[in-house]
Amino acid sequence: MHRNIANSSDTIVSHAKPAATATDTPEKNAASSNFLVQVVEQGLAEGKYASRHWSGKPGPAAQQQAGPLDPAAIRTRFPPEPNGYLHFGHAKSICLNFGLAERFGGACHMRFDDTNPTKEEQEYVDSIIESVKWLGYGWQFQNENNLYFASDYFDFLYAFAEKLIEAGHAYVDEQSADEIRQNRGTLTQPGTNSPWRDRPAAESLDLFRRMKAGEFADGSLVLRLKIDMASGNINLRDPLAYRIRHAHHHRTGDAWCIYPLYDFTHGVSDSLENITHSICTLEFESHRPLYDWLNERLAELGCLNTPLPQQYEFSRLNLTYVVLSKRKLIQLVDEGHVQAWDDPRMPTLVGARRRGYTPAGFRLFAERIGVSRSDSLIDYTVLEDCMREDLNIAAERRIAVLDPIKLVITNYPEGHSETCHAPNHPLKPELGKREVQFSRELWIEREDFAEAPPKGFHRLYQGNKVRLRYGYVIECTGCEKDAAGKVTTVYATYFEDSKSGTPGADTYKVKGNSHWISVGHACAAEVRLYDRLFKRANPGGKLPDTPEGETRDFIDDLNPDSISTIRAQVEGSLGDVTAETVFQFERHGYFVADRFDTKPGNPVFNRTVTLRDSWGKAGQ
Ligand code: ATP
Ligand code: MG
Fold it and tell me: Domain of 547: which CATH number?
């Protein structure tokens, strides 16, 4: 399905359209390219998840075991940290997690991993919820509303931490952050035990309680898991479980001044929620032994329900011409390189929505790129092609003249107009035709006329005939220019018996075909033409001929011409277009009425994506 272009260490996957045959259903494609589908199928066949009890809401072992068998065949979750807006990479994870649950009669939980008080905001929570819903997914399973916040588990997490201390699996460390770092060792050298590692459990428990009570300053003490300072896996060298942060949390306010770390929170949250498949990106592979260690210890202590969740890793989405890292996206917004998070050039889901990208296009993309464990770099055109494929079916056709110049039909009566009929969708005749008015003065594209036609030019030049699409055949008779030599008006005569759809019209054989709008029936519109935000395929990538690891600043790779705003003429009916409707402007591409700036009588269109090919070919 993919064509792989070998390119140093990365594989760029460019688009090869899968052969669409009657037997080649999307489901089959997904099955063949998503290894996690096989993992789930196998687990279900082995009855791996069948014995799980579930109380109907997250909770510890005793609560779950008192409940009935879990009605969800599997449980997955999408666990973003609410510290930014979702990007295209998240779309892959969303389609994967919600998609697997949908496919196998399971539930996918929406969980905010919000244990870091300093970087998280309600604005991000709201936007993430909106984007996941926009992609067409939900977290309702039967009568469960599976929307959760890791911060809701703070009481459980704290209680479990105490249990671990009592069992000798955790201790309070008084070393400074620097000392902890130094004593952690390296990839080749084992770490050194903390002098506090073997302090009595009662002492750690007392200190931990006093940490919670707010007796200590930030950074003065931490709770660590007691695993193995000599482990070959650095994540197992007594990782931190809790730290002191006298900070306000967006949901729990000032209730806590100690906060659990990601690795401590994540597996526990999965277990509390009865997750079967904890799916994450490959950089967490080396955290899996810790994930398992912690869940196993807490299951032994009777805290967590079994069977325990299992972590599976897949390769993250990398896409050419964009950056997919919240940190970099925040920088683009903060430094004003884009207008906002929802700037249509941003690779965020809110940006994509404003640009006219569609949920169905994203799902198609996720299916097409598949899910694997090997690193790859997907060519941006794969995503664009998915949007085109969806929009080619979904979008009605309209006419827009983006660079208008006036055409006068000199033998057409002044003050007169007549109706022509243009199909709304060539692939869906059931959508019918709409009326467009023809008259003596029309707008045509400036590029459709040439004073001195280059070789192979089939549109308007003196003496040449073209068909005005859905209208008449005309012959160009000349033009008028201003003092600067710029063409201001083109002149032509029309052939009365050549009207499209009338008998004999097709006896006129012309090579050129132009679109037009009657001047008296057109509406002016602001049209924003978007191009790639970055001019290089790998923004901030490696510098050629430089020492290993040196990279460019991704900001230097911004495309200075990523937006241009023009004044176009569109069909009059588009004057009161509904915001967010996407059209194919014949010959130009797909355009969406801007969600926020479109006002009655004042349409604003964003170019979603150009047509794959030129006039007369794709999408016509
Ligand atoms: P970033 O690196 O941009 O900050 P993140 O991984 O820190 O992203 P989270 O909010 O923690 O962002 O991510 C939520 C989920 O989305 C995680 O399960 C993560 O693995 C997944 N995810 C994030 N980026 C990608 C990507 N590029 N491709 C696939 N999945 C991704
Ligand atoms: Mg993260």
Answer: 2.40.240.10
- What are 478-504's pLDDT values in tens digits? 999 999 999 999 999 999 999 999 999
Spatial separation of the C-alpha atoms in residues 497 and 290, rounded to whole Å: 80
Residue among 586, 575, 568 nearest 529 (CA): 568
Q: What residues are designated binding site for ATP? A: 81-83, 281, 316-317, 324-326
- As annotated, the binding site includes 81-83, 113, 262, 281, 316-317, 324-326
Ligand 1 proximity of 60 Cβ (cutoff 6 Å): no
Q: pLDDT at position 545, please? A: 67
E strands along 41-157, which residues? 75-78, 107-112, 140-141, 144-145, 147-149
Do residue 213 and residue 269 come from a single domain?
no
Q: How far apart are CA 63 and CA 70, in angstroms?
A: 13
Nearest CA to ligand 1 atom 29: 316
What digits encode the pLDDT tens for the residues 539-593?
A: 998 776 666 778 889 999 999 999 999 999 999 999 999 999 999 999 999 999 9
Pair 526, 567: CB distance under 8 Å: yes
In this structure, are 551 and 467 located in the same domain?
yes
- Which residue out of 316, 433, 535, 595 is catalytically annotated? 316
Ligand nearest to the CA of 80: 1
Q: How far is CA 596 from CA 352, 480, 527, in A?
A: 14, 40, 14
User: Are 570 and 495 in the same domain?
Assistant: yes
Residue 81 annotated to the active site: yes
The answer to whether residue 63 sits within a structural domain is yes
Give CA–CA dist 256/150, Å, rounded.
14
Structural domain that includes position 524: 396-533+537-619
What sign does the dihedral 4-5-11-14 (CA atoms) show? Answer: negative
Asked if residue 191 lies in contact with residue 184, where contact means CB atoms within 8 angstroms, the answer is yes
Under 8 Å between Cβ of 239 and 223: no
Q: Is 292 exposed, middle or buried (0-12, 13-18, 19+ CB in 10 A)?
A: middle
Q: Are 500 and 471 in contact (CB under 8 A)?
A: yes
Examine the domain organization and report whether 131 and 279 are in the same domain: yes
Q: State residue 350's pLDDT score.
A: 98
